[in-house]
Structures are given as C-alpha cells and as structure tokens.
TrEMBL record:
Residue intervals of the FAD/NAD(P)-binding domain: 7-339
E.C. designation(s): 1.8.1.4
NCBIfam families cross-referenced by the UniProt entry: lipoamide_DH
The protein, known as: Dihydrolipoyl dehydrogenase
InterPro entries in alphabetical order: Class-I_Pyr_Nuc-Dis_Oxidored, FAD/NAD-bd_sf, FAD/NAD-binding_dom, FAD/NAD-linked_Rdtase_dimer_sf, Lipoamide_DH, Pyr_nuc-diS_OxRdtase, Pyr_nucl-diS_OxRdtase_dimer
Intracellular or extracellular location(s): Cytoplasm
Length: 477
C-alpha cells in the first residue's frame, strides 16, 4: 500500500554523507526523511552505508584485532609478557567485528529518533516532479511515495571490478568479501596497493596468510609524499608483504577453490601466480544505477559521477548530491562535511568545505596520514618551500610504546613559513594529523607549532620537533 508523505528534505542514502545530512537538516528545523536499503543478515535495516557495513568500521575492527594477535605472538615477550599456546579464534574475531558494525547501525537509528528524522527502509528512486515538489518512490518491505522540496543524493560508490573477473565474494573478493573470509588463506593475492588493498592485506598477513600485492603503477603509493611512501614500502616489505610494482594483469581464472592470475611485472617477465583468495581493490565507481536520474533530467559528469558545482548543487534546482557519488576524494569524512554544508545551504547559511585541509589516512601499521601538499607537488608547482622531519625513533613515548618506525614531516612556504603540508608515518598517525589540520585551517606557520607546548612524553612531541626542524633547530635529534 502506498501513501504520499511530504517533506522539506529527503536524503537518498544512509551512509556518512546521507545520515549526517539528514540529522543536520532536522536540526535546522526541516521536516526530514532518509531512505536507505542496507539490510543485515537478519533482514533488519543496517544504516551507515558502505562505511559502517563493509568499509571503514569493520576494517578498523579487524585491523585492531589482527594487530593484537601479532603483538601477542611477536611483541609481548619484549615487554616481559610470555604467552603460551597462542591460538587464533577467527570466528570470534569476525563476531566481534559484526558486533561493532551493529553498534554503529543502532547508533544511527537512535540519532534519527533523537533528531526526529523519518526513516524509510528500501530503495529510493526519483520519479519526476518539479522544483519544490519532487517525487521519490521507496520500494522495500513497504512501498511509499515521498514528495520533497529538496533532495540530497548520497548513494555512495561500489567496488570496481576487473574485466573478466567478476566478484563472487568467495574466491574473487571486493572489500565486502575481504571482511568475511572464514578461514585464513594460505596464499592471498591483492590487486591494487591502495588504501583497501594494503589494509586488508595487512589484516590477513598478520593472521598468517602469505600475501602478494600486485600494483599497476610504477611507484608505490603515488599520492603520498615520496619520502613517506618509500619509508612505507621498506617497512611493509620487511613485515612480509610481497609487493610488485608496474604490474600488467592478464588472464584471471577462477577455478572455484582458487584463482590463477597471469601478469607481467616491471621487468617485462611473464608470471603466473595461484591464490586461495584474491582481493581486487582497483578503485570505486559512483552508485547511480536505478536512481531515476533521467526522470528529473539530472546530468552525470565525468566518469559517471553526478555533476555538481562547488556547493554540491546539481543542474536541477533543489536537488543536491554529496560524497562518493560526486567529484572529490572518496572519503567518509569528506562526505560528512558536504552533507552538513548542503543542509546549511538549504537553510540559507554558508556551509563550507575546505578541500585543501581534508586529511587522508591509511590504517596500516604503521599508520600513514597526511594533509595538504606533498613535496613532489610543490616541486611541480614551482613553490619555494622548507622541509623539516623528525623520526619517532628519537621520541621517548614511541620508545616506551615499542613502536619507533616512521617520522613526521613538515612542508612550509620558504618566504612566509605558512604550513603547506604535513605527512606522518608512525604510531596513531590518524590522531596526530588533526593538529596539522587545525593549524592549516587557520593558516598557521611551522613556527606556531614549534612554539606550542606539547605534553611530555607524548607522540605529539614529534610534531613539534618536525616543525622545529623546518628552521633546523630540532632539540631532540
């Protein structure tokens, strides 16, 4: 049975961009609805999109669990903690991961109730209408028809498949299948040395898999500052990741129980490798299939993304789009910021997203995090700069933790000393980078960070020391 319900704002998609946009719109006094079709194993709604269900959250849960396992097997002895008979209980590890997902799902449901956001479980499809009265059909456990003055499309992205090697999530895996492997594979192949490939490869290597990473680009982590990337490459190879660069993938044969990959390496030699599981992480594509965009004349832009202006407006008045389905970095926190900004723009406010201060993180061990320009970008742009680095090996807290790999690196304008980029590889880099984000948002200089008192002993002292190193006056190295 279909009933028509009228709203000021309807958000299609309940991932980070969508649910945050809905909450902010409701806070601003709009009658708001959110539509999302994710369903858990029991058939219940599973709000949070890819990030919560098969992305950011479960991957971090497994990364943490696998790190504990590796520490218990290799690092605890140095701390005077002897572990006898260490065993992996993979079903419990996966159960814990699923519990973390459910807690996040339930948290979003609670937030919707708290903020009076109406939730519709199903697939949202645009079905025509005019400015101020767009129609959205919901097909799911129940059928509904909504009308809205404003529509925010936040439908995210899907894993990109390799031609001729479709995901079966049993042998050839996307991020979804990589999070649910029920037995540690003896031989794990990973195509793509990006964020997902390295994180998932790290998880299963720690748990006992022999991991081979095949990367098409000639450089490792090409988007990362070159000095940091070289350090990461050295550390990951030392840990046991078998990384091949400049690879051209040929035929892939899924034989049901294993998969064979033919490829040419950087030296031009033909290779064949057989894996028990193969994770394909070669990027993501915007999720626009079945949205009914043509019913309102909404245009797609380059590579299938929804075309938007700098403020996330589409070509159709009153219809907006945020997150992975539009241009810009495919990051959950970028989607959240756009969701908030769009809700505020609908309210006549001046929502703002500064793409220059969006942090990036790879949650490997050590973690890699950065914000702003890399050294190679500054060279290419002809910008005169100063650089300062400080190793965690010279940091007292890192020594106490037993994790001294990596460094902090500052890049500052040669004339004004304004911070242009900060790059970290090391323990909890994902947390340390926030200081740099704040500093850059307020256009601070490296001298500003160098003059701030940092707690001792703390990892954040490495940030202060790297800022001091810009002026060649580091105190502890």
């Amino acid at each position: 049975m279909s009933t028509e319900k009228q709203f000021d704002v309807v958000v299609i998609g309940g991932g980070p961009g969508g649910y945050i946009a809905a909450i902010r719109a409701a806070q601003l006094g709009f009658k708001t609805a959110c539509i999302d079709e994710w369903t858990n194993a029991k058939g219940a709604p599973a709000l949070g999109g890819t990030c919560t269900n098969v992305g950011c959250i479960p991957s971090k849960a497994l990364l943490q669990s696998s790190e504990h396992f590796e520490h218990a097997g290799h690092a605890f002895a140095e701390h005077g903690i002897d572990v006898q008979g260490l065993q992996l209980n993979l079903p419990q590890m996966l159960k814990r991961k699923d519990g973390v997902i459910k807690s996040n799902n339930d948290g979003i449901v609670y937030l919707f109730k708290k903020n009076k956001v109406s939730f519709f479980h199903g697939r949202g499809t645009l079905a025509g209408g005019t400015e101020g009265a767009y129609t959205i059909n919901v097909s799911g456990p129940t059928t509904d028809t909504l009308t809205a003055k404003n529509v925010i499309v936040a439908t995210g992205s899907n894993a990109r498949e390799l031609p001729g090697a479709p995901f079966d999530e049993k042998v050839i895996l996307s991020n979804t299948g990589a999070l649910t492997i029920d037995n540690v594979p003896a031989r794990l192949g990973v195509i793509g040395a990006g964020v997902i490939g390295l994180e998932m490869g790290s998880v299963w290597r720690r748990l006992g898999a022999q991991v081979t990473v095949l990367e098409g680009l000639p450089a490792f982590l090409g988007a990362v500052d070159e000095q940091i990337a070289k350090e990461a490459h050295k550390l990951f190879k030392k840990q046991g990741l078998d990384i091949h660069l400049g690879v051209k993938i040929g035929a892939i044969s899924n034989r049901g129980n294993d998969v064979t990959v033919e490829y040419t390496d950087a030296a031009g030699g033909a290779q064949t490798a057989t894996f028990d599981r193969l994770i394909v992480s070669i990027g993501r594509v915007p999720n626009t299939t079945g949205l009914g965009l043509e019913s309102v004349g909404l245009q797609l832009g380059e590579r299938g993304f929804i075309a938007v202006d700098d403020e996330c407006r589409t070509n159709v008045p009153g219809i907006w789009a945020v997150g992975d389905v539009v241009r810009g970095p495919m990051l959950a926190h970028k989607a959240e910021e756009e969701g908030v900004a769009v809700a505020e723009r609908i309210a006549g406010q001046h929502g703002h997203v500064n793409f220059n201060t969006i942090p990036w993180v790879i949650y490997t061990s050590p973690e890699i995090a950065w914000v702003g320009k890399t050294e190679q970008q500054l060279k290419a742009e002809g910008v005169a700069y100063k650089a300062g680095t400080f190793p965690f090996a010279a940091n007292g807290r890192a020594r106490a933790l037993g994790d001294i790999s990596g460094m902090v690196k500052f890049l500052a304008d040669a004339a004004t000393d304004e911070i242009l980029g900060v790059h970290i590889i090391g323990p909890v880099a994902s947390e340390l980078i926030s200081e740099a984000v704040v500093a850059m948002e307020f256009r601070a200089s490296s001298e500003d960070i160098a003059r701030i008192c940092h707690a001792h002993p703390s990892l954040s002292e490495a940030t202060k020391e790297a800022a001091l190193a810009v002026d060649k006056r580091s105190l502890n190295f």
